[in-house]
Amino acid sequence: MRNGAVIDATSSDPSVQGVRRFNELLASEPRVNATAIQTVGSKGYDGFAIAIVN
Whole-angstrom Cα distance, residue 36 to residue 27? Predict the structure, then answer.
């Protein structure tokens, strides 16, 4: 997501850092099962997350 920049460890873009932090919070929360999906279409790259609270 963020045009692939989320996996760039050197990115200082606040939006990228926010997505990274969001993913880390989801991954560390034991009550939540979640996945993030990257999508691509005519407007470019996008994505979404789905989370289920157990």
Answer: 11
